[in-house]
Design brief:
By secondary structure, the chain is α+β, with helices and mostly antiparallel strands. The strands form 3 sheets. The protein has a 3-stranded antiparallel beta sheet with strand order 5-6-7. A two-stranded antiparallel sheet has the order 1-2. Strands 3-4 form a two-stranded antiparallel sheet.
Length: 148
């Protein structure tokens, strides 16, 4: 079966110098090419809100080891205004508190010091627990602020 397309590119007829000059003028009239996928999906420092971290982990390679730095959560201990990645609405997050190992350790220490009436306090104080953030509009999970 023979190929459908010609083997050599088509040439312009001789004496058509204005046809050859037209592509250069045409290129000037065209808008710039759109950004590549990597450029469009990367977050620049100017577009990042203050206090938020870059969601991509930074990788540093040394001669012997590879160090991966995982950014912290952009969410804080208080409700905050964000654009939900699920419903794309701007809304204040709804927070709920979840006990962590620090909460249980404080309760254990209170038991060891025989302060049984105070054991429930770490489970009532929000600063002793992690903060889970949910979208205020669609109620989907967005992230956690970990207490250290």
């Amino acid at each position: 079966m023979e190929p459908v397309y010609p083997a050599a590119p088509l040439e312009a007829p001789k004496g058509s110098a204005e046809l050859q000059a037209a592509p250069a003028e045409h290129q000037q009239l065209l808008p710039p090419a759109p950004p590549s996928y990597d450029q469009a999906t990367s977050i620049s420092a100017e577009t990042t809100a203050p206090g938020t971290a870059d969601p991509k982990p930074a990788t540093t390679t040394t001669t012997h080891h590879t160090v991966v730095v995982v950014p912290t959560s952009p969410y804080g201990p208080e409700p905050m205004d964000v654009q939900c990645p699920h419903c794309h609405n701007y809304a204040r997050t709804r927070v709920s508190y979840k006990p962590n190992s620090r909460t249980h350790l404080i309760a254990l220490l209170l038991c060891l010091f025989q302060l049984y009436c105070c054991v429930c306090l770490p489970y009532c104080i929000s600063s002793c627990m992690n903060t889970n953030h949910y979208c205020g509009m669609c109620d989907r999970y967005l992230g956690t602020y970990d207490r250290k």
